[in-house]
Amino acid sequence: MSVRTDSRLGAVRLPSGHTRFRVWAPNAESVAVRAVGADAPLVRGEGDVWEGELSVPQGADYLYLLDGREWPDPCSRFQPEGVRGPSRVVDPAAFRWSDSEWNGLALDDLVIYELHVGAFSDEGTFDGAIPYLEELRELGVTAIELMPVATFPGNRGWGYDGLYAYAPHPAYGGPDGLARLVDAAHAAGLGVILDVVYNHVGPGSEALAAFGPYFTDRRETFWGEAIDYSRPAVREWAIQNACMWAGDYHVDGFRLDAVQAIFDDSPRHVLAELAERVREESLRALVISETEVDDYRPIEEWGHDAQWSDRFHHELHVLLTGEQDGYYERFGSTAGLAREFERLPSERLVVYAQNHDQVGNRARGDRLPRELLRVAAACVLFAPHTPLLFMGEEYGEERPFQFFTDHIDPAIAEATREGRKREFERFSAFAGEVPDPQARETFERSKLDRSRADDGLRAFHRELLALRRGLPREVEVEVDEQARTLRARRGEVELVADFANATVELRR
């Protein structure tokens, strides 16, 4: 095990029936646990970690008292009343698992399906996703990728503003709900990849800063204060979190959000250590990173299994749509897409025509039109890389996926509205009103509507996914820039994509 039970941060259940509490609080003069109607002091130990073994049962709510002031646990396993409520003791040994025969994921045959738990089903919960798992496996998907599920302010949100990184969001079904979804996915033959955010935390970060210097003013991120990974306890906060998901929840892999904003000048980067420790926890767990275009540190330096490839997306998107605003201005040639088809190492690059960013971060969250989806799917699924589909893409979902939030701080809510408006001022194609991210209807508009599914398009995806399983990795590509066509051959099969006429042909 990469993290011994006696060194885990947070509230950890012990075989004795007691609970061990451990919290890093270097600035406190006293720390106590308030639970089951009493206060119990903790003892300062090595590295300014306060700890104690107390008679606090599974399911009990508690708060820490820092010099007499109440705060939730920075490593809380459950926040049933949200970010401002008490923490709850969770015993992962109480989860009921039936996945002992599950063998994990293999990078070579990985096909990822990204989904947002709240928008994927009418229920908007972990349990609400379970009825669709068999359908995804039959499609040819091998893993679902959950957008972040750590507890964030309010009930509705993308999850990238999580505050309690260890606590599955209560609106989705909390710890038990997540365990049921993972177990059901494994029963259906699907792995589960979890999107995790270690580059910043969301509004309410003062609840972490009260315990110690989690953040640094030496760096900054686009989203908020940079996390200070020069501090051993802060490194443990992130690394133990990933190990918890892999160990306690049987998660098969991770998508690390925006790793270019994770700053660490240590001799060994925190994300290299994280990858090693996660694999000690779960040998076959995959570590996949998202980063900026042309930043290959995850796979070249940190030992990650794969990383997202925005270059492939940008070339394909501009060829399909003609949009060249903003960051798209450097892309859009068939030669550029051909280079991405040939880019190595192919299995370690995740490619896509749509994802939560490239749909939801448009002003109105509009998806690719249905008439372009066959060409898009053929390029992504015929490429020798690891493919990713965004929820609903396989059947031509027509509802948008918009940016939605539910900030409980009025000032943060207004700043989010104004920030969205400013963000799109430079995109001429997005002129007009930007949906209010705080409005409930913005979230409701983003829920999948399967009533108008294109079964022919779904069958096309199923055919492509079955086809790719028998193709060699090697690919030969030719382009005609003037005609805007691309030909790609893998083994005995040739793909002909005509971007001028938005058609595609597979020749065997």
Structural account:
This protein is an alpha/beta fold. The chain has a domain at 5-92: Immunoglobulins (Immunoglobulin-like). It contains 15 helices and 25 strands. It has helices spanning 117-120, 126-129, 133-139, 174-187, 206-209, 232-248, 270-281, 297-300, 310-321, 334-342, 356-360, 370-382, 410-423, 440-445, 455-468; strands at 10-13, 19-24, 31-35, 38-41, 43-44, 49-54, 61-66, 69-71, 87-88, 112-115, 143-146, 150-151, 164-168, 191-196, 215-220, 225-227, 253-256, 286-289, 306-308, 349-351, 386-390, 476-480, 485-490, 493-498, 503-507. It has an 8-stranded parallel beta barrel with strand order 10-11-14-17-18-19-20-21, surrounded by 4 helices. Strands 3, 4, 7, 8 and 9 form a 5-stranded antiparallel sheet that branches. A 4-stranded antiparallel sheet has the order 1-2-6-5, with no helix packed on it. Strand 22 and strand 23 (485-490) form a beta hairpin. Helix 6 packs parallel to helix 7, helix 9 (310-321) runs antiparallel to helix 10 and helix 12 runs parallel beside helix 15 (455-468). The longest helix has 17 residues, at 232-248. The mean pLDDT is 95.
